[in-house]
Amino acid sequence: MESVFEIIAEPNRRAILSLLVSSQQSVGEIERQLHMSQPAVSKHLRVLRDAGFVESTVDAQRRLYRLKPEPLKEMDAWLAQFRRFWSAHVDALERHLDRMGRDMDQKTPAKPKTKEKTTRPKPRA
Amino acid sequence: MESVFEIIAEPNRRAILSLLVSSQQSVGEIERQLHMSQPAVSKHLRVLRDAGFVESTVDAQRRLYRLKPEPLKEMDAWLAQFRRFWSAHVDALERHLDRMGRDMDQKTPAKPKTKEKTTRPKPRA
DNA sequence: ACTTTATATGCCTTGACAAGTATATGCTTT
DNA sequence: AAAGCATATACTTGTCAAGGCATATAAAGT
Questions:
Q1: Which of A95, A79, A81, A85 is nearest to B68 (CA)?
Q2: B105 or B65: whose pLDDT is higher?
Q3: C-alpha radius of gyration, chain B, whole number
Q4: A115: alpha, beta or left, given left = phi > 0 and alpha = psi -120 to 50?
Q5: Which of A3, A1, A29 shows the shortest CA–CA distance to A16?
Q6: Chain B partners of A83 at a C-beta cutoff of 8 Å?
Q7: Residue B103 class from Cβ within 10 Å (0-12 exposed, 13-18 middle, 19+ buried)?
Q8: Is 0.85 surpassed by the pTM of this model?
């Protein structure tokens, strides 16, 4: 499980990170708020720590976990390459798709040899 | 494989998306540039399309795939909750950790009952 | 010293998914 | 119509990770 992206693919791990945004938390606190078993929480925290998403601090028998920014910034950096694209093309693209959608409703009389036809994805739950 | 994050957890899928940033590509073109088998490419494209990351267009026997912005924006939205955090705290946090690191080198004479001790993560390859 | 509280870890089972191979589908050219 | 090219899909197999349960470790309280 090398990459930053595989780490945050796990929903519980994302939940933990979201929790830690507000403030640092102990394992037990996380366990209760997210309704997961203590070993599960510990294991996820282990993964997150090894990947640099969090760091821990010993307070008596507890360990307090808090966020570290680096890996999140790394994700942001990857996303950056697309940002240019989506901010530029969203509305133009949507208009284009709208027109294609309407064209498909008609019986498409004669296909002019090499004209393109758009396939729509099925909606996700 | 519901969430956007699980989709982009796959390295080849990320590679495909990065390829498509420049321009739309046919399956065969992707296959060659990424050195993967044709079925592999088709399968990943299927996943990406069902998740709304790409859309396809028929051009004779080829299918041209291009990016769609929505899911990427969704990721960006999730990341947003941390942005506040990392831009505010990076330098302060790093100074803090630097001092902790230096403190640990000394023999830590007497633990004052409830003083916290930082654990560092192991570096990733 | 013993018990309780807090967290980590080891083992095991189960499920998901990626890749390979083979084959199906469909358009094109001759 | 036949052959060929481009892409999709079905089936099988190997890998890996998540969760449960039990247990280890360690600090606190009595």
A1: A85
A2: B65
A3: 23
A4: beta
A5: A29
A6: 76
A7: exposed
A8: no
Cα–Cα distances (Å) from B26 to A73, B38, B56, B62, in that order, read 32, 11, 9, 6
Q: Which residues of A touch B117 (CB under 8 A)?
A: 57-58
- Tokens 């399956």 belong to B27
pLDDT tens, residue by residue, B53-70: 999 999 999 999 999 999
Long-range contacts of B16-20 (CB under 8 A, 24+ apart): B16/B41, B16/B44, B16/B45, B16/B48, B16/B54, B17/A82, B17/B48, B17/B53, B17/B54, B17/B67, B18/A81, B20/B54, B20/B65, B20/B66, B20/B67
Whether CB of B6 is under 7 Å from strand C: the answer is yes
3-state secondary structure of A37: coil
